[in-house]
Design a protein that fits this description.
This protein is 15% helix and 29% strand. It is an alpha+beta fold. Strands 16-17-18-19-20 form a five-stranded antiparallel sheet, with no helix packed on it. A four-stranded antiparallel sheet has the order 1-31-30-29, with no helix packed on it. The longest helix has 14 residues. The protein starts with a helix and ends with a strand.
Length: 634
């Protein structure tokens, strides 16, 4: 139909004929979909959608109207009310059919279609009315394969976008948007012709003397979109080079028997060694650092081999004693501290290893750049040790009024968060003076805390009971913390602002807004995923994936006490280890166990760490043994 209309435009000059009256890149595109969009965190958009059409400003508002600030923008555009219900975006299948059959309805898939499930949900319960056939409008109807879940739709949709097929054909899209098919005969042959006002240089506004005509053209350009600058004018963009065949990620698409374990006989720890349990484990480059419960600090060298039967070798490197002034008592992560006197209660959340602000530029194998941070609960201080000398470089008052319970460091190594008995968290900057100056708030500056390797930047409020666990992600600019009463608080890192508080109802296992009071389950472990969700493990054995916006994606009963938990982003997998002595790998989107590896002969698993390129899983056990888990290549 569009082609027929295009061919019937005989009265127009050739350069003014068009297939699409509005453009694929306009405010109308986004606001049509984004009526559902109110996520508190805007995810980083890494991919651009395929060319599928255009929208007017009204359509744009309709797509995004369900969430602020787009709701107010939509109402303002519609003269103080919602648009006609039949014109709103409420059914994905119906929207697709309309694009196929209507000459005036052409849309593109905005980036939120691949990243933000909130755009499909009327979380604010806006009264959007009902259609002429008496259908009430609320959430968007999704395809059957999404199983009614916006998160499942986004997950599968993004997998399709990031697939090898799309990558192999991406150059065709570049030709349409920026290349030789944007204008001229190639554009007409590809049916890629837009209104001539949208093209760069097609009209010189400075030469238009009629003010009314000028404003009309400006309004058209503003509301109906503009074509990007043409970057390639003659030749097609080359196809992407053939992808080299790569091995399957270690923890991706696993089945029973796909994982194997190697526990070297020669190592510093073990049941016959006085070192005791492994309480902290860190993998940096080709080095693995192990801290035992008697403060014996050991390092190992990990080397990949070409032997499929044993693709990794572990060699003992150094064994030294960490300088510390307190007597150590190792306890499990959920046991209450009942010891008296000068005993320091430690668990796997008491230590982090970082290169600080020098993390990105430093050689990952250089011990001289590494710092070991630990929280000394008895003395209410944070200790900073140099890995090269193991000497205590700094003891900083943690600022907490009471014990410091847990400590975590961001993925870039420049930020750290601590949680304490005083129901507060503190954000610290590690060896990065300019960042510390930029984000430290006035309240913290007035406290006069000591500064050297680490600087306190924010005090985070929101809890009313002692902190049990923390997690931090600098890429998402978020700190998540859990407390004994079941509350989970979310804060921005750089501003220190409180975002929201959640809890999981003990009876219904549902995520609720606001503080838990007396009916929440205590979170014991937290891990943040880059897609804006996090995994929480609770003291009743429940494992749950929750979005930062407070929506539960899935849950599972693990059937054991978990001592260590981490996310393998490359494989979209959650790895856990606990009292039963088994490593379990679960899919993140539904927490289904893909594979389980039993190593209980070494005792309960106390801590986990992932190496990089290739991925090996280092496992610390209560009998002091270090093991490495790898994929069994058959």
């Amino acid at each position: 139909m569009l082609i027929e209309r295009y061919n019937d435009l005989d009265g127009f000059p050739e350069e003014q004929k068009f297939l699409y009256g509005s453009h694929y890149s306009s405010p109308g595109v986004v606001l049509h979909y984004s009526e559902y969009f109110a996520s508190s965190f805007h995810h980083i958009i890494l991919h651009q959608s395929t060319l599928t059409g255009n929208l007017t400003l009204t359509l744009f508002h309709n797509l995004v109207l369900r969430q602020e600030p787009f709701t107010s923008m939509h109402i303002a555009l519609q003269s103080g009310r919602f648009d006609c219900p039949d014109r709103l975006f409420f059914d994905l299948a119906g929207c697709w059919r309309s694009c196929l059959t209507s000459t005036s309805d052409v849309k593109e898939l905005i980036p939120e279609f691949f990243t933000c499930p909130e755009i499909f949900t009327n979380t604010n319960n806006f009264p959007l009315g009902e259609t002429q056939d008496n259908k009430q409008i609320s959430n968007v109807r999704l395809p059957p394969w999404a199983k009614g879940s916006p998160h499942e739709f986004i997950r599968i949709h993004r997998l399709a976008l990031e697939s090898e097929y799309v990558s192999r054909h991406l150059h065709h899209w570049i030709d349409l948007i920026f290349g030789y098919k944007q204008r001229g005969p190639a554009s007409s042959a590809a049916h890629n012709v837009f209104h001539y006002y949208s093209y760069e240089g097609s009209v010189d506004l400075d030469k238009i003397t009629d003010e009314i005509e000028r404003k009309a053209i400006e309004g058209h350009i503003q509301n109906f979109g503009q074509t990007p600058s043409q970057l390639i004018t003659k030749l097609p963009h080359p196809e992407r080079s053939a992808k080299e065949k790569q091995s399957v990620a270690t923890f991706e698409s696993l089945r029973t028997g796909d994982l194997k374990v190697h526990t070297p006989a020669k190592q510093f720890g073990g049941p016959k060694s006085p070192c005791g349990a492994i309480i902290s484990l860190h993998a940096i480059g080709d080095s693995v650092f192990v801290l035992h419960s008697d403060f014996t600090f050991c390092s190992y060298k990990l080397n990949a081999t070409r032997n499929n039967a044993l693709p990794v070798q572990i060699k003992a490197d150094k064994c030294r004693t960490l300088e510390n002034g307190s007597v150590v008592t190792y306890v499990d992560s959920d046991k209450q501290s009942t010891e008296q006197g000068s005993h320091l209660m430690l668990n796997s959340d008491s230590f982090v290893l970082t290169m600080g602000g020098n993390y990105r530029a430093a050689d990952h194998g250089a011990d001289s750049s590494l710092l070991l941070m630990s929280c000394d609960a008895f003395e209410n201080i944070i200790r900073v040790h140099s890995i090269e000398s193991l000497q205590l470089q700094q003891s900083v008052s943690g600022g907490h009024r009471g014990r410091i319970i847990c400590i975590q460091v961001s993925e870039d190594g420049a930020l750290m968060v601590t949680g304490g008995d005083d129901a507060t968290c503190r954000v610290w900057v590690v060896e990065h003076d300019s960042l510390a100056t930029a984000i430290t708030d006035g309240y913290v500056s007035s406290l006069g805390l000591e500064e050297d390797e680490i600087t306190c930047a924010h005090v985070l409020f929101g809890h009313v009971s002692p902190i049990t666990c923390v997690a931090i992600c600098s890429k998402l600019d978020v700190v998540i913390s859990g407390s004994e009463d079941g509350s989970i608080c979310i804060h921005n890192i750089r501003s220190g602002k409180f975002v929201r508080s959640l809890h999981v109802d003990a009876a219904k296992k549902e995520v609720k807004d606001s503080c838990a009071r007396n009916n929440g389950i205590t979170p014991q472990k937290l891990a943040i995923h880059m897609d804006g969700s996090f995994v929480a493990y609770f003291n009743d054995g429940t494992l749950m994936v929750i979005t930062i916006n407070g929506r539960r994606i899935c849950k599972a009963d693990v059937g054991e006490k978990i001592n260590a938990m981490l996310i393998c982003h490359e494989s979209e997998a959650l790895i856990t280890g606990g009292e039963l002595g088994s490593v379990r790998v679960r899919t993140l989107h539904d927490l289904t166990v893909q594979c389980s590896l039993n190593i209980k002969k070494y005792g309960p698993i106390t801590t986990l760490a992932l190496t990089s390129d290739p991925n090996f899983l280092c496992v610390g056990s209560s009998n002091g043994f270090l093991s490495v888990v790898f994929r069994n290549v058959k």
